[in-house]
Amino acid sequence: MNIFEDNINLILYVMSLSAYDQVLFEDISVKCYDETFSVFDDLTQNRIFYNTDFVVFFNKVDVFDVKIGAVPFTTCVPSFNTEWAHNRKKIVGYVRTKFETLFKQNTEAMHRKPTKSIFRNTNSPPPQRDVFFHVTCATDTRRMQQVINDVQFGIVRRQLQMAHLA
Ligand SMILES: Nc1nc2c(ncn2[C@@H]2O[C@H](COP(=O)(O)OP(=O)(O)OP(=O)(O)O)[C@@H](O)[C@H]2O)c(=O)[nH]1
């Protein structure tokens, strides 16, 4: 990954909620969900993003809703409670917890081990960042506009808070 800026405020991370039973086109030995968690893990470990907020979109929920009626989530996670294997709320909760756990672990690791910024010759201050989640259907443009507005509002509010103006 090549990054030439160190003042990135926000990363929009889009994952396909409906891909729980799919594997990568380029490598059929890798499950799409494993890849999405792994890339998020890499990004949130990267010290360049020590002050960067993340917004995770659980996208393609419309496709997910149709699929989950027929294909249980245990296809992806065999240990998942079979009673909830068709339950969107429980599944989204599970996926969200996975993302939150990675984010928390990696943020705490940055707190424990401050290192020199690669851009400035100073120690990085403790990370001040957060993660937010939205369940989306990108093709529903009206609803997406509301989500984007919420995200923009969140960015402005957070910048004001960091400047102690809100
Ligand atoms: N039904 C539905 N289609 C979507 C949604 N988001 C994206 N798509 C469609 O999925 C296709 C692939 O979208 P891209 O933006 O190219 O995403 P990609 O990551 O390159 O491709 P995929 O791995 O297939 O998602 C396009 O036809 C999009 O219109 C969604 O939330 N619901």
UniProtKB/TrEMBL annotation:
GO terms for biological process: adenylate cyclase-modulating G protein-coupled receptor signaling pathway. The keyword Metal-binding applies. The keyword Cell inner membrane does not apply. Gene3D superfamilies: P-loop containing nucleotide triphosphate hydrolases. Pfam families: G-alpha (PF00503). GO terms for molecular function: G protein-coupled receptor binding; G-protein beta/gamma-subunit complex binding; GTP binding; GTPase activity; metal ion binding. Keywords: GTP-binding, Metal-binding, Nucleotide-binding, Transducer. Transmembrane segments: none annotated. One of its GO terms (cellular component) is cytoplasm. GTP binds at N59, K60, V61, D62, A138. This is Uncharacterized protein. It comes from Reticulomyxa filosa.
